[in-house]
Please model this.
Amino acid sequence: MATIPHWLNGYAVHTEATRQLPVHNPATGQVIHHVNLADSDLVNQAVQMAKKAFPDWSATPAIKRARIFFKYKALLDKNIDVLARLVSEEHGKLLDDARGSVLRGIEVVELACGAPQLLKGWFSENVATDVDCTTLRQALGVCVGITPFNFPAMIPLWMFPLALVCGNTFVLKPSEKTPSCPLKLVELLYEAGLPEGVLNLIQGDKVAVEALITHPDVAAISFVGSSTVAESIHKTGIAHGKRVQAFGGAKNHAVVMPDANLDQAAEAIAGAAFGSAGERCMALSIAVVVGQKTADQFVAKLTTRSQRVTLGAQDEKNADMGPLISHEHLKKVTHYLDIGLSEGANLLVDGRLVTHSNPLNQQGYYLGACLFDHVNAHMRIYQEEIFGPVLGIVRVNNFQEALDLVNSHPYGNGTAIFTRDGDTARTYASQVHVGMVGINVPIPVPAPFHAFGGWKKSIFADIAMHGTESIQFFTRLKTITTRWPAHGVRDNQAFNMKSSADISPMTAEEFP
Ligand code: NAD
Model:
């Protein structure tokens, strides 16, 4: 059985591993290959290669770096089906869904192609007599990306293309559960012409992560994963003097107002809750319905829709969602169903009763759509991220109650409101304490030229991802103040503090 390699200095590297993990196809439960887990020596080798490549790469004109990404974008387009299949085989999401996630990553590569424009600095002429000021962006050095299992193409593509076009070199540590697609992404970038050592990939688990976030030659860390790990990576990385952005988990609410189109809202919320088996950080897991009459009507529609959700593998026709990532995760999610029942919530649709019809998939990690009614704010199924196809309904009496509920939740990644009223929508968007808001849009993942990032426990950083925020994160500013010895000098000016407008010009004598 094959072992998935690391990628160092431009080549795939197989090592004698002391530690190894099986990689499963979640749709069948079969082990499809193994992945070697890097130790701290291998991590050090990857960082040293990135460090060695940094001087030449950061000195390469931005437009030349960007040209590699134009070729990369063409290669990604050509290989999209291969990439989607790798995502689907190891993650379990359906092929169309996997293809969509690769496309979302490619959009960030398109953004990276515009690096020369994004990296433009500022120039002020004559800030004092004959003195000019330039502010420019420079690369940080070796940057690190640590990514979760659920988007093995999209999230790495959110990180390394923008880091690299800014002139940094990079070490990627993808999830050990979905290692193949990130490897293919790296291979394709070398095919596009990336110089050796600029991007390296380490397969591994928390041992590799620990070595990366404390390594003295690492300048910055971009992390996406669960909140507990995000918080600890942020703390350790900062303590070791690194720039860190760490994106965590979520519990995303949809608010359904009485004036909403309830058929559309039910369809949209079911898709956002159960698509990809709920394993999306922007999945909707709580629907807050305003008014008892609306709630009764909405719950009836949502129950019917949830009962119709079908399970499938890869490109099976008419399937709505695939399996969960692992047997362990399946057990965790089904345990939450027991918790919800013991807390008094009403399980209207029980996904445990749904099985995959194909005998080949009977060992797959499948769970059908699950719908709880009468969830309240004190329940664990409300407070905690489940990360599976489990949607809870909370009934409230008015808009303010809905807003207060969302605002008091510890997570703040995404949210959506369903209404036809502009005032309500605008007030919600303005007052909700959540980073990404959809108005009649269930999964408001921003376009790549807008900021992606949650609030509260969903982020441990000041700078979001995507667009100009990523350029900000992966560069630091330098301001250069310049004067040339064209004119005479005033007396006694060299010893006192001056406002910029008073900075005196130098005499020719000072520059013999
Ligand atoms: P995870 O936190 O278990 O793992 C993420 C990465 O951290 C992996 O590369 C893993 O190897 C590493 N890791 C795991 N445990 C570690 C530890 N103790 N110390 C150091 N490193 C460790 O997350 P996951 O299960 O792969 O992904 C699902 C989570 O990611 C969910 O909570 C989901 O909401 C979140 N997520 C967030 C976003 C976002 O943009 N906010 C996007 C996708 C996923």
